[in-house]
Amino acid sequence: MKHFLRVMTAVIVTIFCLAGCQNNGTKAKYIFLFIGDGMGATHVATTESYLSYKAGKLGGERLLMSQFPCYGMAETHSANMNVTCSSAAGTAIACGEKANNGTVGINKDSVDIESIAYTLKDEGYKIGIMSTVPINHATPASFYAHNVSRSDYYGISGDIIESGFDFFGGAGFIDYKGKNGDLEPTDAVLERNGYTVSYGAEEFRRESAGKDKAIFCQASNRNESADNYVSDGTVEADASMAEMLELALEYLGDEEPFFIMGEGGAIDWSAHDNRTMSMIENVLDLDGAVKVAYEFYKKHPKQTLIVITADHETGGLTLGCGSSKINWETLENQWIESGKKNILDYDANRQMNKSCSIGWTTGSHTGGAVPVYAIGAGAERFNGRMDNTDIKGKILGE
Ligand SMILES: [Zn+2]
């Protein structure tokens, strides 16, 4: 009898596993891929701990993304380093092949490789690429550009023309007039090549309606290099990531299939600086955009796939550092009193984190696996352990 039960249990577990992990080959009509740049599992846990504190609890509050039914972990090493950079990881996710740190859209042999955005465009999908940081930064660039250097921002911006993708959104462009500031402004180049470039939501709605290809830039980046972008809290007039995604959805519509990649890029920027509260604000900003995608999913549940992952962890964040009690009160009070700006200098910020029992071990990236959350058509493929190069094929149902 004991043996029989053991065999039956094994059979049932196998059936469940096959049902939960099968690759059934379906491809969603509407695909949202979110990348929290630098968002390790602890960034999610720390944000949820803060939300729990706000609710008067020790834990239990959840972001929307971490409530999605399918969950896995993705390995992140690059082709030449244990610890990846955003362009190598972005390329691995977008193109399904490992790349060297510092390169964009090319493999370790310097051969151009095809991102999922190009694959889907060829199949008739509309393509939207958006980020909370500049449009020509590493992660968004991995989906449309090919370059030996992620720092060739002006050259990367030019690859937007080659892509022909329908929608781009973000905080303007780094090296807007080239490294020396003496080249044709990026928006003028793009306008000359068929893109309508708008600044701010109101202008975007007015100018891009009915146009073929459109680019949304944050209002604060008008006629400016994106170098004025601040990662320590968005400029008041600027659109949140949720608002940016709403603009993308209004523009792309739901008649044609679409693929939208949305990057929460400032999570990484604030984690590099070990700024706990602005990191949390940026994770919440990303989760706000996930909510917009989720509302869309509820209208088209059988045709929509939402995947959220990260390119790598940034900062070596630990929830607890010395004391078992996180002093959220002090962290939050300082953040609110500063007008939600990172006003503490490096040492004072370090001291603040430590005294509140939030640990940061580095100002760089780390090499651990990152979370993958999914819901919708084909979401079960994201259960369990994977490599970041598996994500493209899993989305495509290959
Ligand atoms: Zn980074």
* Rg from Cα: 21 Å
Global geometry = globular
Largest sheet: 10 strands, mixed
What is the overall number of helices? 14
Uncertain residue segments: 9-23
Mean pLDDT: 91
SS strand fraction = 15-25%
Computed structural class: alpha/beta
Order of helices and strands: HEHEHHEHHEHEHEHEHHEEEHHEEEEH
Separation of the first and last Cα atoms: 42 Å
- Total DSSP E strands: 14
Helix content: 25-40%
Strand order of the largest sheet: 5-6-4-3-7-1-8-13-2-14
Bound molecules: zinc ion
Overview of the structural elements:
This protein has 398 residues and is of the alpha/beta class. The protein has helices at residues 2-21, 41-54, 86-95, 116-122, 138-144, 153-163, 186-192, 201-208, 241-252, 266-272, 276-299, 328-337, 346-355, 391-396, and strands spanning 30-36, 70-75, 126-131, 167-170, 195-199, 213-217, 258-264, 304-310, 313-314, 317-319, 358-360, 365-366, 370-376, 384-387. The strands form three sheets. The protein has a ten-stranded mixed sheet with strand order 5-6-4-3-7-1-8-13-2-14, with helices on both faces. It has a two-stranded antiparallel sheet with strand order 9-12. Helix 2 crosses helix 11 (276-299) and helix 8 runs parallel beside helix 9 (241-252). The longest helix has 24 residues, at 276-299. Residues 9-23 have low confidence and may be disordered. The site of zinc ion has 6 residues, from helix 10.
Topology:
Blueprint: H1 2-21, E1 30-36, H2 41-54, E2 70-75, H3 86-95, H4 116-122, E3 126-131, H5 138-144, H6 153-163, E4 167-170, H7 186-192, E5 195-199, H8 201-208, E6 213-217, H9 241-252, E7 258-264, H10 266-272, H11 276-299, E8 304-310, E9 313-314, E10 317-319, H12 328-337, H13 346-355, E11 358-360, E12 365-366, E13 370-376, E14 384-387, H14 391-396
Parallel strand pairs: 1-7, 1-8, 2-14, 3-4, 3-7, 4-6, 5-6
Antiparallel strand pairs: 2-13, 8-13, 9-12, 10-11
Helix pairs in contact: 2-11, 3-5, 8-9, 9-11, 10-11
Bound molecules: zinc ion.
Zinc ion binds at residues 38, 86, 268, 272, 314, 365.
